[in-house]
Amino acid sequence: MSVNDQNGAALGQAFTQNVIDAMGPKTDPRLREVMTGLIRHIHDFAREVRLTTDEWMAGVEMINQAGRMSDDKRNEGQLLCDVIGLESLVDDITFAAAANSTTGLTASAILGPFWRQDTPHRDNGSSVTFDTPPDGEVVYMHGQVTDVETGEPLQNASREHNLRGIFHTDDQGKYSFYCLRPTPYPVPQDGPAGKLLGMMDRPVFRPAHIHLMVQHKGHKSLTTQIFDKDCKYLGNDSVFAVKDELSVEFVPRKGDPLAPLELCYDIRLAKAS
Amino acid sequence: MSVNDQNGAALGQAFTQNVIDAMGPKTDPRLREVMTGLIRHIHDFAREVRLTTDEWMAGVEMINQAGRMSDDKRNEGQLLCDVIGLESLVDDITFAAAANSTTGLTASAILGPFWRQDTPHRDNGSSVTFDTPPDGEVVYMHGQVTDVETGEPLQNASREHNLRGIFHTDDQGKYSFYCLRPTPYPVPQDGPAGKLLGMMDRPVFRPAHIHLMVQHKGHKSLTTQIFDKDCKYLGNDSVFAVKDELSVEFVPRKGDPLAPLELCYDIRLAKAS
Predict the structure, then answer these.
(1) Nearest residue of B to residue A105, measured between CA atoms
(2) Which of A15-29, A193-207, B5-19, B207-221 has the lowest mean pLDDT?
(3) Nearest to B31 among A52, A97, A199 (CB)
(4) Which residues form the Intradiol ring-cleavage dioxygenases domain (chains A, B) (predicted)?
(5) Helix, strand, coil percent values for chain B (each to nearest 5)
(6) Which residue ranges make up each domain of chain B?
(7) Assigned superfamily of A104-185+206-269
(8) How high is the ipTM of this complex?
(9) pTM of the predicted model, to two decimals?
């Protein structure tokens, strides 16, 4: 009658199957697939490491604390996933599904926990830097958004970036703006994700990067990050988002009093299916 | 130099190994063991079900919401674990480790998300029921706390229960009080755990039960629940805590104007190691 017929019955797979089988017939098929996998792996994990009540409760408290400090400007639950590589993994899975057999498509990377919905629209060629620090290096960033298969320039594609602005490509699919050469920074250490990094004796830095989100009607949206190939943290990103094909080089720019550096980055989008 | 040498590298086990290997040498050995298992299983889960960014983000939002509604009277992160059977599983693992080869030890069960630290001390024979509802049935509950191996009665063991009180056993290890016969109740449905239960098309009820936490100096503490064997939800507890040996029978009590029912429940504790 009960699910545990003797002490320790939960230690066997029959208990796990019982939890899975508890899902009713009205469960959405995809949710059933996801929850079945989640329940099986979480149970196997607990059994394998002989997880104790105290250890599990420490994990619960970490989750509750992450939720309490999350708001519309910071997502600590997401950061917890990031430091164990989950967002990068899920991003790759989603990208692989979108890419299919297409080659040349600009690679995706994680959105990260600091994206904001209220980013302002700006004109091409304008600057997103308000307070350039004494050691900051201004960069003229530009490029072209094209269809990955036809090479056709995509007009009115919008680009947002993290310091932050939305730009619209011209009739040649081109965009341009001034920004700062990014610098490495540590992920926030005042929450459970930072605490976990400390407990795992891991570097807290993210390599210097620029976030890109590119949207065009009729094409699949792209969320990615590009990384300064000279950054020393490229090999130990605390959230595991670095990909070789997303590493870029900032080169000297001549004849522009506004910026000593330049970055040209073209973007290739896939047609929406 | 980077961890992902090509598109989709995170889809392979090398990515997962890289995340695991990122743990530094100062990581506590047990934490390394737990995190290695967690990272491996969470990654395998994501790969197996081809978890998408949108699905993962829905999970993150569920975790953040659980944290936001948790406080010292309610633990929604815990309840999320409970509905996928994790607290019961971890409890069994911990109990198995405590029980070793001892037979006869009173079985443990989950603490649940509503335990409170401020439970008052009360005299044996007193009542914990303040407002008996018209359809409520008063029960005289009593029993003896003994050492599981020697049978020796344990004096000054303290018992807490959920409606709620702390009682101290007498020199015979005996306790007694009046309470209500428990009734089934639904887990809270205003949070992500209740929402998840709904999405999984599962019953939300917990079978009628009484929480027990028994502590005695020199013996291992016991946290458990006992279940009314006549309850119709015994076979589909929403948090999978029911065990046959924790099912109890409420029997008629004669000659006591205060209670028509009686429950005798003896408890056997193991010596602290």
Answers:
(1) B7
(2) B5-19
(3) A199
(4) 157-269
(5) 30, 25, 45
(6) 13-91, 104-185+206-269
(7) Aromatic compound dioxygenase (2.60.130.10)
(8) 0.82
(9) 0.81
